[in-house]
Amino acid sequence: MNKVVVGLSGGVDSSTAAAILHHQGYDVVGLTLWLMKGKGQCCSEGMVDAAYICEQLGIPHYIEDMRDVFATNIVDYLVSGYSQGITPLPCSQCNKTVKFGPMVKYAQEKLNSDKIATGHYARINYNSQTGRYELLRARDRHKDQSYFLYDLSQDLLAATLFPLGELEKSQTRQIARKYGLKTADKPESQDLCLVESNGSMRAFLDKYLAPKPGDIVDLAGNVLGQHDGIQYYTIGQRKGLGIAAAEPLYVIAIDAANNRVVVGDRTKATQPECHVGRVNWVSIAAPQTPISAAVQVRYRSTPVPVTVIPLENHRVRIVFAEPQFSITPGQAAVWYDGEKVLGGGIIEG
Questions:
Q1: Distance (Å, rounded) from C-alpha 343 to C-alpha 132?
Q2: Catalytic annotation present for 193
Q3: What pLDDT is stored for residue 280 in this prediction?
């Protein structure tokens, strides 16, 4: 069967992915997930552009209403996290629970297809020796999105194609222009869809969490200033504290129970290790003994050498070769062996 369901957001990447597969002879069907109202690549404007692309390519286009799923799995997840003093990462959660999983189900149950494709910059390789699908970085390291895909299961990787995985971003736009796609020169999405839709993360949070003033304190408990809500702060933050001090101060902890933001110098915001929960082992089976790897603790952070120590209940302990700055609960830690994603999870602290 060569039918493939392509997730179309209305941006140049997903549009080009659909065009590439269409011109390769696949029976392509476009599917747009309606996640929320308002502006943004995946909302009203994006759906219109996605429909236009399908018309250009002469392929069917379907829209699936996922607003309730998105609200439960992403909006509630973010609001709950920020209210507890952590900084949640919605993208990996969204990819697994809102996008890839539901897309595969929709493709299989409604469109008689076992394959989906997206415009993500990543690659998938099947290792016949281990019998596992491996998630690899994209050729274009500047666009590589494997960090956000660490939580995909073997079943989802087996059902997925990444047509842009071998391309540079400039090549993607060249192909889009070659095929005359309406989205060829469409500006790139620069932020989270929720931020684009609301104007800022603060504006989004203000819809759900009321300001709750409290103290900004040092490690000794001395009050240095005031904040208007712990949801507006994150570990490692320096700007916007409103505190005059002899040396730069950073957020080193958020004490949700006492509604306090704790600050200190840069050394206090540096950690030699951290614990990670909700771990998914992607390209390899879960090891029973410690392994060496290189970890990213943020999307744009440089991979650093670590020892990953397996624990019970889908958790690991990560020991850094050198202490790292701004290890933020709620963000993802993703560890690699070269280009291969070994596993990842959510930083607990």
A1: 13
A2: yes
A3: 98
